[in-house]
Amino acid sequence: MLWFQGNSMQLAKHSFQLLLRNLSASKTALPVLTLFTKDPCPLCDEAKEVLEPYKNRFILQEVDITLPENSAWYDRYKFDIPVFHLNGQFLMMHRVDISKLEKQLQKLEQQGAGG
C-alpha cells in the first residue's frame, strides 16, 4: 500500500534505499550512525554535509523524532537535534565532532578486523 500524502512517498523511497544499503553493507558489517532529526532542521542538514566524506564508512539511519512512533525520542531530544548514536550508543549532539566520530569509527574498524 502506498501513501501519497506529504513526504510519505519520499520517506518510502528513502526507506527502500536504506534497506538496499543495509543489505549491501551487511557483507562488510558497517556500523550504523543514527541521526535523530526533524523537518526542518538546518543544523541536521549541515551535519549531513559534514558527514558526506565519511559516508562509505557507516550506514546513516535517520529517525524523524516528530513521527508518533518516535515520541520517546522526541521527549528526549526535542531541544538537542541533531543527535547521533553509533551502533545504538550515544555519540554526539548539536554538531558533528569529526575527531570523536573518527576515533569511534577507527575503533570499530579495528574490532571488525580482529584486533
UniProtKB/TrEMBL annotation:
InterPro entries: Glutaredoxin-like, Glutaredoxin-like_YDR286C, Thioredoxin-like_sf. Signal peptide: none annotated. Pfam families: Glrx-like. The keyword Transport applies. Keywords: Electron transport, Transport. It comes from the Eukaryota. Belongs to the glutaredoxin family. This is Glutaredoxin-like protein. It comes from Phocoena sinus.
